[in-house]
Every structure is written in structure tokens, then in C-alpha cells.
Design a protein that fits this description.
2 domains, 3-stranded antiparallel β-sheet, globular, Gmad2_Ig-like_dom, GerMN
């Protein structure tokens, strides 16, 4: 082999090796056995599923964000006569914490207006039954988006905790768009997601969402800050029987929030109501703690 051929072979081998890597998180198999917990499940909840293939954008801001889009996506063109849709992420509240959900609506360039309108409209019946609510009133609109900052004014009514939750709903919802990195609420300066991160529960579930029809295998995603980064999942049928379990590790361990992805499957003879529970196994007594329960519709599984 010539000298040039040897060099080319070495370069190709080096590229193949550098392209391989070990994922930081994934499904690890059956969940650890946990004793029943008397703790009431906390809210469904974030941070986000993997970004969809295409993002909705805002017309007012000519300068795109340097951050990748977090949630909005558009569907491919459908049959003649159908309209494209955009999927937006909304942050509702339950038990004083932020909870994410999604809406698919006809595509529009005014995505911030659409998101705030949906946020003010509040939860669906299935979400309301799961305890989700909104504190954002109708009529709030973005007046401008400049250099990645959306400007609007949020009513300062209610007690301080309620006002802060309302602001957090708006900030977390608007900053999903690639043109919005911060939000100016008419206060001392622009704010972002980190300013309200303490309003997230220990375990956030971004998929599935309340009332969603799910089929096996189900991919459960979200973010968590739990002991040794271990997130456990179980699926309950309409009778409360455990039909599937699994666990995985978040991309960051105790003391920091990381993303997780757990795949579970089940066998069911008929479509029925069900619940997906995502929780942490207590290092103290093995009980389920920091539980996030998501009511769903279980499709039959083979």
C-alpha cells in the first residue's frame, strides 16, 4: 500500500472511532421493587422532549436564537385541502408547581399570540380532572420581540406566590420558541427559565401528557433531579393493576436536573383508562416518592 493510502486508512478509522459514544441515559429494564407510598402523587410535569424536526418561528424578531427550538413543531403537508399544524408546549400549574402539556393547532406565524391564547384558555377536561389549572388571564399579548427578548405586561394581581406562578407560566411557555430567550414582564429586567426553575417538581414528565392515548412501547420522557439520577416508571391499568415497569437514568445526578427517557411496554386486551407513574425510589425505605402521575388512555398491547 502506498504512503498516501496508509494515511487515508488511518484517518477513516479515527473518524469511525470518534463517531461512537455511550448514551448518557436510557431504559435499563425492570424497575426496582418499591413499597407503596402514602404520598399523594405530585403534578405532571418538564424541560423537554427531544426537539421536533421543524420549529415554529416568530415574525417580529429577525434575529434567530442561538439555542435550538425546544418544543414547537409543524407537521408535514397533508392531503390537498388540509392545513399544516403546529404543536406548542404550554406550562400549566398544579399544587403550586409548573406542569407541561401540549396542543396541536393550525399553523400560524403568530406563535406567541397562539401560545398565550391557549394558556389563557386553560386545561382540557382531562387535564382539569388531573388537577391542572392556569393563572394566566385572557388578553395578554406580546408587544414586541427584540434581540431575543419578548416584551409584555402580566397583571400583578393576587398574592406574591400566585403572581410568580403566573409569570413562570408565561416565561416557560414563550421561551420554547427559538426567537425568545428572555421575557420582559414590565419589571426591573428580562427574566428566563432559570429564574423560575425552583417551581418545577423533582420529576417533570413531558411525554405523555394528561388524557393522551398511548400505545406500547411507550417512550416516557422528561427531566428530573433525583437520588443517583435513577427514574422509575410503572403503568397501571383501569383497575389499578401494574402492567409495566421500567427505569432509567437521567443525564445528571443528585443535585442537578437532567433529561431522562424510559421505554415500557404492556399487554392489554382492550382500550382502557390507565395511569403512567414516574417516581423516585427512596434511598431511606424503598418507598415511591416524588411521584408524578399522568392519567392516559391505554391502547391494547400485544
Amino acid at each position: 500500500m502506498s504512503r498516501n493510502g496508509v494515511i487515508a486508512s488511518v484517518l477513516v478509522a479515527g473518524l469511525l472511532v470518534s463517531g461512537c459514544g455511550t448514551p448518557r441515559f436510557g431504559a435499563l429494564g425492570p424497575a426496582p421493587t418499591a413499597a407503596p407510598s402514602s404520598t399523594t402523587p405530585s403534578s405532571t410535569a418538564l424541560p423537554s422532549t427531544a426537539p421536533p424536526s421543524a420549529a415554529a418561528t416568530e415574525r417580529p424578531d429577525p434575529t434567530p436564537s442561538k439555542e435550538p427550538p425546544r418544543s414547537p413543531s409543524t407537521t408535514p403537508p397533508g392531503p390537498a385541502g388540509t392545513r399544516d399544524t403546529v404543536t406548542i408546549e404550554l406550562w400549566l400549574v398544579r399544587a403550586g408547581q409548573l406542569v407541561p402539556t401540549r396542543r396541536a393547532r393550525p399553523a400560524t406565524v403568530a406563535t406567541s399570540r397562539l401560545a398565550l391564547t391557549e394558556l389563557a384558555a386553560g386545561p382540557t377536561p382531562a387535564e382539569a380532572a388531573a388537577g391542572l389549572a392556569t393563572l394566566v388571564p385572557a388578553g395578554i399579548e406580546v408587544t414586541r420581540i427584540t434581540d431575543g427578548t419578548a416584551t409584555l405586561r402580566v397583571p400583578s394581581v393576587g398574592d406574591p406566590a400566585e403572581r410568580r406562578l403566573r409569570e413562570a407560566q408565561v416565561v416557560w411557555t414563550l421561551t420554547q420558541f427559538p426567537t425568545v430567550r428572555q421575557v420582559s414582564l414590565g419589571g426591573t429586567g428580562p427574566v428566563g427559565r432559570p429564574d423560575y426553575a425552583d417551581l418545577l417538581p423533582p420529576i417533570v414528565v413531558t411525554s405523555p401528557t394528561a388524557g393522551e392515548r398511548v400505545a406500547a412501547p411507550l417512550v416516557v420522557t422528561g427531566t428530573a433531579t433525583v437520588f443517583e439520577a435513577t427514574v422509575s416508571v410503572r403503568v397501571l391499568d383501569a383497575a389499578g393493576r401494574e402492567v409495566a415497569t421500567g427505569f432509567g437514568t437521567a443525564s445528571c445526578g443528585s443535585g442537578c436536573r437532567g433529561g431522562y427517557r424510559v421505554v415500557v411496554g404492556w399487554r392489554a386486551a382492550r382500550e382502557q383508562q390507565g395511569t403512567v407513574e414516574v417516581y423516585e425510589v427512596s434511598a431511606f425505605d424503598g418507598s415511591r416518592i416524588n411521584t408524578t402521575a399522568v392519567p392516559v388512555i391505554l391502547a391494547p398491547g400485544a
